[in-house]
């Protein structure tokens, strides 16, 4: 088992790693759009989350095309159509398993948080 904290991503807000690589898989912690303000438009928050996710996956020797499961927490169910559209744009033809969880609120007032698991490569995680 290897833990990974991406030096080019916003630092974790607590006692956890961005990812743990174990048994051929990269398990990413919940990623908030910390690179933008909580009041930023949904699309900016979504883009910020997936920029961070791409950075973390690259550090684990993998990428979005190897995603197996994606879990998205959304603070407003009315955001669902736009989240689904943005998600389809990000993944294209790849259709990993997915769970969308409506929640009352998210940390710092953000509108979404994403965690996922992907098949890992050799990577640089340590």
Could you describe the 3D structure shown?
The chain is α+β, with helices and mostly antiparallel strands and 126 residues long. It has one domain: 60s Ribosomal Protein L30, Chain: A (2-Layer Sandwich). The chain is built from 2 helices and 6 strands. A 6-stranded mixed β-sheet has the order 1-2-3-6-4-5, covered by helices on one side. Strand 2 and strand 3 form a beta hairpin. Helix 1 runs parallel beside helix 2. The longest helix has 18 residues. The radius of gyration is 14 Å and the shape is globular. The model has no long low-confidence stretch (mean pLDDT 94).
Task: Give a brief description.
The protein is built from two helices and six strands. It has 126 residues and is an alpha+beta fold.
- The pLDDT mean sits at 94
Secondary-structure element series: EEEHEHEE
- What strand line-up does the widest sheet have? 1-2-3-6-4-5
Give the amount of beta strand, in percent. 25-35%
Rg, rounded, reads: 14 Å
Query: CATH architecture, please?
Result: 2-Layer Sandwich
- Taking the alpha carbons of the first and last residues, their distance comes to 9 Å
Rough outline: globular
* CATH homology superfamily: RutC-like
Query: How many runs of DSSP E, i.e. beta strands?
Result: 6
Instruction: Give the structural class.
Output: alpha+beta
Largest sheet: 6 strands, mixed
CATH topology, what is it called?
60s Ribosomal Protein L30, Chain: A
CATH class type = Alpha Beta
Low-pLDDT stretches are: none
Helix content: 10-25%
List keywords for this structure.
126 residues, 60s Ribosomal Protein L30, Chain: A, six-stranded mixed sheet, globular
């Amino acid at each position: 088992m290897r833990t990974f904290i991406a030096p080019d991503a916003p630092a974790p807000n607590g006692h956890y790693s961005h990812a743990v690589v174990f048994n051929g898989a990269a398990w990413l912690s919940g990623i908030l759009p910390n690179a933008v303000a909580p009041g930023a438009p949904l699309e900016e928050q979504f883009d910020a989350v997936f920029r961070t996710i791409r950075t973390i996956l690259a550090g684990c020797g993998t990428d979005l095309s190897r995603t197996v499961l994606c879990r998205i927490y959304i603070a407003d169910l009315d955001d669902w159509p736009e989240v689904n559209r943005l998600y389809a744009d990000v993944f294209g033809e790849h259709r990993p398993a997915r769970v969308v969880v409506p929640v009352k609120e998210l940390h710092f007032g953000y509108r979404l948080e994403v965690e996922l698991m992907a098949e890992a490569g050799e990577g640089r995680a340590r």
